[in-house]
């Protein structure tokens, strides 16, 4: 094979490995681990039970979990870190202005504040978009209702925080990790390119092009020339860490499941005691919540007790898997009265203690 052609194929392989192969390889392991984390945090399963429950979930469901939570974060981290590096590189490029312009305009002062303003606006917009995306994940659908959020029907604080994605720390903590990692990754790309540029200028080879526009050539050169790898690795690592934290804070989105010994049509809301895991090899696998008196007495509320149950196909004739209700209070309402209030919520304080509450309305488990 011609050496030049071989070099071209090698560059294509390196680019695909950096931007496609790595995210694809991370999707399923992350999806499985995200399910495991949610089973331990939301359903209060121990380590081994949660690991076994995650292993029972269909492989495509785990991949879908990885795609919805991680894949978009990885793609945005690449663009965000590259954009930050571009802003820094353009600032460094503009320092070589003419002497006349440096005399009449304080360009260094102006450039410094313009650069800071650009980076601040970029990070602020990304923060808002990340928070919106986290709320969509928790709500399970794209809608204005989910973005606004609604007040929980629970009067008990522990129950409300368990069933809802809160702005702090549930959304802001992973968003901060994501932004910090991408910012540092962009700075590493900028510093690596500066070092690569100096090494090229010191040699006899022709200096590289100074086109910093975010085009395919920019990302391709970054991988083949090596100056984007360290920043890209850090951006990927921060995306994975932020996504794990977000998965831990997000209420587990596992469909409800109703089992009946006879074929019948069920209207309205089904049972909320069972959560569907998978159906494989003639077995239904589900998480069954054992009801206790403390479940309906918020002042004495304790973590729910879920067990893994296996049911043969022949034992049931009617199985209903219900999605998350579209009006469920899965997301904390936005501040400044931007959220959706809950109507007919009635909480009465106990006579012997004003700090403890009892609830008269139960909508969701």
Task: Please characterize this protein's 3D structure.
Helix 1 (3-41) packs across helix 2 and helix 8 (167-202) packs antiparallel against helix 10 (229-249). The protein has helices at residues 3-41, 47-56, 59-94, 99-104, 107-139, 144-148, 157-163, 167-202, 216-224, 229-249, and strands spanning 256-260, 274-280, 283-290, 305-312, 318-322, 347-350, 353-359. The protein is globular, with a radius of gyration of 26 Å. 55% of the residues lie in helices and 12% in strands. It starts with a helix and ends in a 6-residue tail after the last strand. The protein folds into two domains: 3-249, no CATH class; 260-322, no CATH class. It has a three-stranded antiparallel sheet with strand order 2-3-4, with helices on one face. Strands 1-5 form a two-stranded antiparallel ribbon. It has 365 residues and is α+β, with helices and mostly antiparallel strands.
């Amino acid at each position: 094979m011609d050496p030049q052609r071989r070099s071209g194929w090698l560059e294509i392989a390196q680019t695909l490995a950096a931007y496609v192969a790595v995210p694809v390889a991370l999707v399923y392991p992350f999806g499985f681990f995200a399910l495991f984390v949610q089973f331990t945090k939301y359903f209060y399963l121990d380590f081994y039970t949660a690991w076994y429950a995650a292993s029972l979930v269909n492989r495509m469901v785990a991949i879908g979990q990885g795609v919805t939570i991680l894949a978009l974060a990885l793609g945005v981290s690449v663009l965000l870190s590259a954009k930050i590096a571009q802003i820094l590189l353009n600032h460094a490029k503009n320092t070589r202005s003419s002497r006349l312009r440096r005399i009449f305009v304080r360009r260094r002062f102006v450039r410094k504040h313009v650069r800071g303003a650009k980076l601040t606006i970029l990070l602020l917009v990304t923060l808002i978009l990340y928070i919106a995306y986290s709320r969509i994940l928790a709500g399970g659908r794209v809608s204005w209702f989910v973005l606004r959020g609604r007040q929980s029907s629970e009067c008990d604080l522990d129950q409300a925080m368990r069933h809802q994605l809160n702005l702090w720390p549930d959304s802001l903590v992973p968003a901060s990790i994501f932004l910090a990692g991408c910012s540092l990754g962009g700075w590493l790309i900028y510093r690596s390119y500066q070092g690569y540029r100096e090494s090229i200028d010191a040699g006899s080879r022709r200096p590289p092009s100074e086109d910093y526009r975010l085009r395919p050539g920019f990302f391709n050169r970054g991988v083949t020339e090596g100056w984007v790898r360290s920043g890209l690795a850090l951006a990927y690592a921060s995306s994975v860490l932020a996504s794990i934290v977000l998965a831990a804070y997000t209420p587990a989105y596992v469909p409800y499941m109703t089992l009946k010994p006879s074929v019948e049509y069920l209207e309205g809301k089904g049972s909320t005691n069972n959560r569907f895991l998978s159906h494989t090899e003639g077995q239904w696998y589900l998480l069954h919540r054992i009801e206790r008196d403390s479940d309906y007495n918020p002042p004495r509320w304790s973590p729910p007790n879920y067990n893994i149950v296996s049911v043969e196909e022949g034992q049931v004739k009617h199985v209903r898997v219900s999605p998350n209700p579209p009006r469920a209070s899965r997301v904390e309402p936005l501040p400044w009265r931007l959220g959706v209030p809950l109507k007919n919520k009635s909480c009465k304080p106990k006579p012997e203690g004003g700090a403890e509450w009892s609830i008269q309305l139960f909508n969701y488990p």
